[in-house]
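Hi P.,

Sorry for the delay on this. The queue was packed all week, but I finally got your sequence through. Input first:
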Amino acid sequence: MNRTLHTFVACAAVLGAAGAAAYAPAATAAAPGKMALPLNGKNFFTAGMAFSSKGDRICLIGTDFDAMGNGKPRVLLVDRERKTTLWDKQLPLPDGIVSLNLAECAVEDDRVYLLANGFTRHTPDLTSIHAYLYAFAPGGEQIATTRLDVRSDDQFAHTMRATPEGLTVSGFVKDVGDKDEHYAMFTASFDTHLHAQGTASLRKNGAYTTPYAARFIDDSLYVTGTFFPASIPKDSPGKLMASRLKTNGAYVWSSAVPQTGDNTRRFAIGPDGTSYTFGVGQDSTSLSLIAPNGQVRTPLTQQGGYCSVNALAHYGHGLAAVVTPCTGKTHQLVAIDPTSGALTGVKTIPGDPLYVSANASSWSVLASDANGKTYLYTGSAGDL
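Then the structure:
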């Protein structure tokens, strides 16, 4: 799956750049909590963070890269209140897999779940993708692992939702013919030991590939990013879209994301289903919103540009992003006003911000110092 693999490698290279920090604070920001992590921020590519429902534990996933560019998938569970790492694991690669892209984790009272996508070759045009699930006990012992049984050339998992009964997972499949590519979305269910519950459902009317954001909310899956129709000639470009789909397979709406000429962009889904697309270019930034009912808002454009956006998260009543200016080697953490698109630098996080994440009540930022020593900063949603 060349589009997916190229995106992962490009993001890893961008986030691997070292640097120092952001600027101008929110005047009322409280001092964030801080804890050291056993990571080298110069070599670690962060793929995601997830809070437990109580907000006291955080799962951190990503890839450690060596000097030759070889990556090892890594999972950490930290105790936010005690400021300690509960466990830290490097995952072995499944049979036949040469690299494993960690997609998402979920922290429950008695389980930590991990969603991943494995690549069979390093060559983008020749690789196949297989989706995997892992389940760990709170102490880090691996309970179960399984490969998703969705019959196709490639299976790529987007997101998951944990319930007392187990997991619901969504993603896309791709099959390649002589001249065309064929795309479909899937939804699959598993119990707490990762046994499949029934067969995966397929929606054979197109799919979202990387980059993307996806989120289960009530009985729906909201997703936004790069969309490909059910059948398309090989190597054709996708379109920026957003959709709401029912988890039972029903279609609700799809809307086109406005094109603003950005160099790079990131996506996020708010807790109410609002879709956010934040893009940056050398001269300006843009924020596009699509409401939970599919209504497209006029893009919000601001002067002042960046060369990349490395992470985007919805927190409290706003957004936060890690961006890279076009001059220098520093990253910056910025807060984004969703009503105007205006950016405000965040000074409360020292060092080089690498990644930002949030849930309904808390946020977390991964940052490193000039030597690569890495820290996790956390606070309440309204304080960033």
